[in-house]
Every structure is written in C-alpha cells, then in structure tokens.
Amino acid sequence: FQKAFASHLRNPSKVKRPDGVPKRQARIYQDLLFNNICGFVDICFPVAKSLMSEARWRLLCRGFFRHHASHTPYFSRIPEQFVQFITGHAGSLSIPVWMPDLLHYEWIELAVDTDQANLEVTVDKRLRMNPTLRNLAYAWPVHRISPKYRPRKPQATHLLVFRDLDDSVRFIEVNAVTAQLLNIIALGPITTADAIATLAHQLGHANPDALQIHGRTLLADLIQQQALFGKLT
After folding, report:
1. pTM above 0.85, yes or no
2. Which of 202, 201, 205, 134 is nearest to 174 (CA)?
3. pLDDT along the chain (233 residues), means of 10
C-alpha cells in the first residue's frame, strides 16, 4: 500500500489512487510532499532558480519528484540528489549546457558547511589540506553566472571551497597549476619543497628554483587563508 500510495503521490496524473484513499486527502499529501521537497531545493540553488521562470523551475522540481529514486532519507541530502538527477538527465532537459556545473557549485557550499571533518590544527612542518576543502574544476565560470551574465562559451575554471576555523565557507579562484599543486598535497602530508619539486617535475618546468620561490609565496597565502594547514619548510 505504501509503495502504491507513494507512486500515486509522485505522479497522480499517471498512477491510479489506491482504493480507500479519499481524493481530497490524497491531494493534500501531494501538495505537502512536493512543496516540502521544493523548499529544500529552492533554498540551495537561488542562482539557478533566478535564471528560470517559476514554471520552468517547478517543472524541473516536478521531474525530480516523480522520477528520481533517492538513496538517502536525509533532508539535508535532497539538494545533492537533485544535482545527480539533473546531471543524469541533462541531455533530455531544456536547460542551458552549463546548468549542471552551476547546480554542483551551488550545492558544494552546503556540502562544505555540513562536512563533519575535524578542523583542529596540529603543529606540523608538512603541508596538508584543510579536510573540508574541495578542489573543483568546471568547464564554465560558474562563480560568475547570474541573471546579468550567462556564458556563451566554455571557460575552464578552478575553484577552492572550504570551511575556515571560524566555520565560514570560503571561496577562492585559482589557476590550473595551483589546482595541480593542491592535488599533489592532497595525496598526503608533504614538505613545501617536495610538493613544489614534484609539481616542477610534472610540468617539465625549465627553472625549478624560480618555481620554488613563486610556489612558496602561493602556499603561504593559502595557509594564511586556511585552505592549507602546516608550515613552510
């Protein structure tokens, strides 16, 4: 009965109402559940929502409500499930090609804000990532998209999103080389010199000593902003 009732609530125009369920009460449940789901989606994706008419946005929410089989019962995970649904069906939806990237970028703030990682700083001469840090690469400049700016051409974009020691979510735009350096550090605690030397080797850099100087300045700034923990060595 629960499955039959849930199927009807998801898609009342296509799935018959179970016997014994009054039409009016069923409609109340339909509205309550759909509006509840939409509430969690709306609050997580204000930019994406602002780029569509109310009718188009509700159509996306309705498709998610009807067709997505969520793998978690937690309300806080609904936005993540919405991103998965839109990304998986992007080819059949009437949305801009950059919309999946934008939705992921908007969702990541919630993911970082609710990350349960321990941010305790320990004294260490090696570098390590802030455990909440996401080193993100997008095909589109998602951090610039707004009702006044909708990109027409792809533009590779690298962004760091993390929570600092004051529990504030921070955003930093970086270039591809910095993102590559952070991927090296993410493999495990490493000294400053070793991290930059590894990057120089990967890049085939003509002047590793100069890269050490520039790299140390960059890493000092990321430590100061709490994207990284540790000391320069």
Report:
1. yes
2. 134
3. 92 92 93 94 97 95 93 90 96 94 98 92 86 98 97 97 96 98 95 96 94 96 95 88
